[in-house]
Design a protein that fits this description.
The complex is a heterodimer of chains A (110) and B (124). Chain A has one helix and nine strands. Chain A has one helix spanning 26-30; strands spanning 9-12, 18-23, 35-39, 46-49, 63-68, 71-76, 85-93, 98-101, 105-109. The longest helix of chain A has 5 residues, at 26-30. In chain A, strands 1, 3, 4, 7, 8 and 9 form a six-stranded mixed sheet that branches. Chain A has a three-stranded antiparallel sheet with strand order 2-6-5, with no helix packed on it. In chain A, a hairpin with a 4-residue loop joins strand 7 and strand 8 (98-101). Chain B is an all-beta fold. In chain B, the strands form two sheets. In chain B, strands 2, 4, 5, 6, 9, 10 and 11 form a seven-stranded mixed sheet that branches. Chain B has a four-stranded antiparallel sheet with strand order 1-3-8-7, with no helix packed on it. The mean pLDDT of chain B is 96. The chains are: A mainly beta (110), B mainly beta (124).
């Protein structure tokens, strides 16, 4: 069982908007910065969001991140079939002195 | 081009040992922390270990503490994961990832470049 909790799956139609939640604790999300990763089928993970809401160069502004208290959210607008992937949140856990990932959310674009 | 290439994955018997390597290129390896992350078949991502820029600080996840050791050789631009007492549950694809820790503050930690992974299979 993961330290960070994500919904196992979400789905939406092309062009629509979807959000993926990531719930944690004071020792991780509340006191540290959250990053999000996209893993397309049979590929390595890719950084989507860091520092809660910043996008690396090359990541379109359809992807956004936010954080409030012990929860973080990834938002994706203008959904495309190419966005079908597994999405993971992650952050440092000060109590564990280690990194923690969410269990991952599978996005289906119907 | 920034690149990470893992190697060393193999089929190994339970209780055996293995050393994974991650060759870095296209960036100043000695200026970045590094991490190992694994993914068991059909499962999610699991952080394994991280190491600071000089190798002086290391962190390991509880499931591998005492069995795995992360290390680096900055003269060779290479990251290692020494794996002992391997168990069936260590079977996974192992990714190395460049880790960014601005100001040396782990609260800002994130992983910005990933390798394609190397497969470790532990047979019982």
């Amino acid at each position: 069982q993961s330290v960070l909790t994500q919904p196992p799956s979400v789905s939406a139609a092309p062009g629509q908007r979807v959000t993926i939640s990531c719930s944690g604790h004071r020792s991780n999300i509340a006191n540290n910065y959250v990053s999000w990763y996209q893993q397309l089928p049979r590929t390595a993970p890719k950084l989507l969001i860091y520092d809660n809401n910043k996008r690396p160069s090359g990541i379109p502004d359809r992807f956004s991140g936010s954080k409030s208290g012990t929860s973080a959210t990834l938002g994706i607008t203008g959904l495309q079939t190419g966005d079908e992937a597994d999405y993971y949140c992650g952050t440092w856990d000060s109590s564990l002195s280690g990194w923690v990932f969410g269990g991952g959310t599978k996005l289906t674009v119907l | 081009e920034v690149q990470l290439v893992e190697s060393g994955g193999a089929l190994v018997q339970r209780g055996g040992s293995l050393r994974l390597s991650c060759a870095a290129s296209g960036f100043s390896f000695s200026r970045y922390a590094m991490s190992w992350v694994r993914q068991a078949p059909g499962k999610g991502l699991e952080w394994v270990s991280s190491i600071g820029v000089s190798g002086g600080s290391t962190y390991h996840a509880d499931p591998v503490k005492g069995r795995f050791t992360i290390s680096r050789d900055n003269s060779k631009n290479t990251l290692y994961l020494h794996m002992n007492s391997l168990r069936a549950e260590d079977t996974a694809v192992y990714f190395c990832a460049r880790s960014v820790i601005p100001y040396g503050d782990y609260s800002y930690f994130y992983m910005d470049v990933w390798g394609k992974g190397t497969t470790v299979t532990v047979s019982s």
